[in-house]
Amino acid sequence: MKVLFIGGTGTISTAVSGLAVAQGMDLYHLNRGVRAAEVPGVHHLTADIRRPGEMAAILHDRQFDIVVDWIAYTPDDIERDLRLFSGKVGQFIFISSASAYQKPPGRAVITESTPLHNPYWDYSRNKIACELRLMRAYCEEGFPVTIVRPSLTYDHNFPIAIGGWGCYTLADRMKRGAPIIVHGDGSSLWVVTHAEDFGRGFLGLFGNAQALGNAFHITSDEVLTWNQIYETMADALGVKADIVHISSDFIVRTVPELTGNLLGDKSWSVIFDNGKIKEFVPGFQAVIPFRKGIRRTVAWFDADAARRRIDTAVNEQMDRILAAYAR
Fold this sequence. Notes:
Number of helices: 12
Distance between the termini: 59 Å
């Protein structure tokens, strides 16, 4: 199976790439070559997808069974993909987001038929618009699309709501005994998924003709409170977290740029019903509990001091919220 990942160097796509190569797939990454690739066995195509001339030259007469766009965020990106791949691919997989589901949720249990509506986050509304355009292309033109909606998925990163993404800032605060923020009272329910678990379900959709025209989320079945998530991280780091609970409304009044991340996603309790992905990919089951997965994350950071990047801006943002709350 010949597969093209547009992007391929992110948190989820890197882990999925390793699994795909291990399964014998002929995998290509197409990106600008800015981020170092770490997956042996992947072929690399260097081009900027926003430049039609570069894309025409790099794709030329190449054909792919599967194309996955990991970095499409707007309807314009989808129009570009339709021009590039219509009639030239067996299955096109769009990476959407579980944040597209109705906010506030009408029910705590989310299925793929839960309405798509998010008044709080432009990111999610753009993903919804992308989905609608692709489904119209499927219905009217037979464009072979499958939509996948990841939720909070981690590997070499800490799956948190406040404290920085892709850096070591929150872990460093915990180890120094500095206070960290958990939104609300920490009792709302959430699901975090290891990228390898996601990948096992995701790759099972490749080449599945029944998956065309369908949308799926792929998550763990383990449901945790936010307090449990942060406490499990602290335990993996060998410390006790100094947690300060602050309401989401107060946080976003203080730092409005967190509105989408909180009110548009993580401040609501959610439980994902994974019945559909299990039906289409028989035998799929998330097998990495958070207490084990987060220890792998900590070990990855511990293995190389250069990975433990501290983001000053994130620290300043957290201290600003804490100071405002103290006042």
